[in-house]
Amino acid sequence: MLDKSKTYLDNKRYSLSKNFSDEEMARDWTLLDRDKKEIGKYRKASRLLIAVQICSIRLYGRFLSEVNELSPRIVNYINVQLGLPPSLTIQVPNREATYIEHRKNILNYLGFRKFDEQAQDKLKIWIEEQARKGELPEELYHQAEKRLLSERIVLPGHTVLNRLIISVCSTVHEKIFESLYLKLSPEIKLAIDHLLAVPEGEQRSYFQRLKEYPPSAKISALKDYLKRYRTLVDTGINDFDVNFINSSFLDYLYTVTKHYNTKEIKRFNEHKRYALMVCFLIETQKSLLDFLVRMHDQYIIDMCRNSKNAHEKKYRAFRKRQKKAIDNVLKITHLLLDWPEKESLNKKEFLLKVDEKKIA
User: Among candidates 248, 251, 272, which has minimal Cα distance to 192?
Assistant: First the structure.
């Protein structure tokens, strides 16, 4: 449902990999003059670690936990800026108190604060507002990271942020499902029940059939998909107003519903079940119409191609017969022209000569 910490993991992969340019390294890991002044307050053995964490907080909003997995190119680039000798490793404090103190000093220097309860409550309000507008969890995750970074708040672990977003979105979505449910007419609810029911003697519901991708463009397939489209129209779905739902969110619910089977859909409470099905039917109707147009176009193209091929086949056969007839006429004409110059032939011999020419 949510692409967990994609931004953070991408950033971390970038910093720990070797596939980056010198320009990117200079952009993200160049120390400011005031950074060097601040770093100079620490012992020489700790300066490299402090410099790395300052850049990490400024760039990612998080402390880099696996500092010794950082690219050697970045490590030595920072060493050069600090006037330190080249090194392959970064010295980490053994004492936890020193480690905590370093982090606290870095946050104070950069003006960052921890993701405390106040920051969490404020973020929850913002997530709820965005979710009501139809923003999707994955999009909210990236936006929340950017928002916290812009407010100079240390980003929480990806699991914490993930759970927070899913929790808030689930609450908002339940309210949206309830709103959709209250707008449904009894006729639409009954039609949805029929679509989810498995007819006697069959193994699949009509809902499962609606998820199928169209076969090749044949007249039987066209008739079948036209019947499906009319079935959806008969549910009265065209009269249902979903303008209060964001189009991207509507498409998201449609995609989510497609991944459920009939039994799973029936397990949901009424609000969620009917809301998901309504969104699915609305988007499926659009898809069926698109399929019908494309299948019709393909069917006409195939008919034109087959007609053209049949015409060309008959035309080639006609030209072949025509050429053969013309060749025979020319042969006979040459024979008639050459006949007076040769020895006299009686009528029977001449006809035999003509037949020989035809055979030749």
Answer: 272
